Amino acid sequence: MAKVFITGVSGQDGGYLAEQLLAAGDEVHGLVREQDRPTPDGSGPQLDAAHLHVADLTDGAAVTGLINEIDPDEIYNLAGMSSVARSWAEPVATGLVSGLAAATVLQAAWELSERRGRSVRVVQAASAEIFGNPAVSPQDESAPIAPVTPYGAAKAYAHHMVHVYRGRGLHAVSAILYNHESPRRPATFVTRKITRTAALIARGEADELVLGNLDARRDWGWAPDYVDAMVRAARAETPDDYVVATGVSRSVSEFVAAAFDRAGIQDWAKYVRVDPAFVRPVDAVDMVGDASRARNRLGWSPTKSFPEIVAAMVDTDLSN
Ligand code: GDP
Predict the structure, then answer these.
(1) Which position among 10, 82, 127, 174 bears the catalytic label?
(2) Domain carrying residue 50
(3) Closest ligand 1 atom, CA of 252?
(4) Per the structure, how many domains does the chain have?
């Protein structure tokens, strides 16, 4: 039984991770902000058996104190501003939460490891956004770090700090996660916005879907699979960087077509309007990851196909 500490336990990934580890019998501690405490209506993650600690990840003293008190075997640093779109409006907050805060976690984990003579295993949730607008496709762990968004720059700092602390002997992993979706994805992400609106249109409760760039291509995977990759990476013998991706990218319009089809609407184009307000100042054209290292070393592979992911999301939205 491992004792784990998860920051961002109230988010999509943190919830799935906590559920997976609780089911396996691990002792799960989670960090939540006061305003993000899970709602007891049963719609979110089932965290009753987890120990929740209320603090803000940017409160270094509080987070360090908690890590010392919990004395975890593993730390998953998943908290952060998860929206690339929002990072343009809030670049400083993004830098503090998704970038600098990782230094607090890594330093606290390193000091604790030194004291007890055994390394805490830290997994930092990095992002494909650290590669910016990549010249190579697909990207593996050797792709140049060249972010083009405030979110990507913050995540790149955290990724570099993982390397710094790995150099000091900490068992620190950087999981370079490509887009990963689920029915728990907030509608700030394009996938959930599409599936939710498709369900509303199918029920006659909305008449259009307003989007930005329809040609952007993303490598969309299934969030619980990505959480599983992080656990495997934490528990591997040596720490490393791992791209976690399906290896296939699709355009936003392909996602729209698949979602509308699932909702029973064939002529999706007549419901979709492009509004420049949703087009970003800079946006990667095509992100697609090569997860060979995770497949070969961790025995990881995605369990859900693109149509299955779309179906799971649309079906949830149709039933709500
Ligand atoms: P991201 O890749 O982490 O930024 O995930 P998102 O789901 O927010 O965006 C995926 C892609 O969809 C990006 O290329 C966006 O520019 C594009 N996109 C097009 N229209 C929209 C929209 O209305 N909302 C969002 N969030 N993204 C959109």
Answers:
(1) 127
(2) 3-181+220-247+289-298
(3) 12
(4) 2
Question: Does the N-terminal peptide bond of residue 72 adopt cis geometry, omega within 30 degrees of 0?
Answer: no
Question: pLDDT per residue over 20-79, tens digit each?
Answer: 999 999 999 999 988 887 666 666 788 999 999 999 999 999 999 999 999 999 999 999
CATH number at residue 162: 3.40.50.720
* Residues 269, 257 share a domain: yes
Q: Are residues 150 and 227 in the same domain?
A: yes
- Same structural domain, 110 and 254: no
**Of 289, 10, 262, which Cα lies nearest the Cα of 130?**
289
Is there a contact between 73 and 46 (Cβ–Cβ < 8 Å)?
A: no
Which residue's CA is the nearest one to ligand 1's atom 5?
Answer: 189
Instruction: State the DSSP H helix or E strand holding residue 26, giving kind and residue range, or none if neither.
Output: none
Instruction: Give yes or no: residues 23 and 71 share one domain.
Output: yes
* Ligand 1, atom 2: closest residue by C-alpha: 179
**Mean local confidence (pLDDT), 153-182:** 98
Q: Which of 151, 178, 226, 242 is catalytic?
A: 151
d(CA 78, CA 71): 18
Could you tell me if 255 and 122 lie in one domain? Answer: no
In tens, the pLDDT along 101-144 reads: 999 999 999 999 999 999 999 999 999 999 999 999 999 999 99
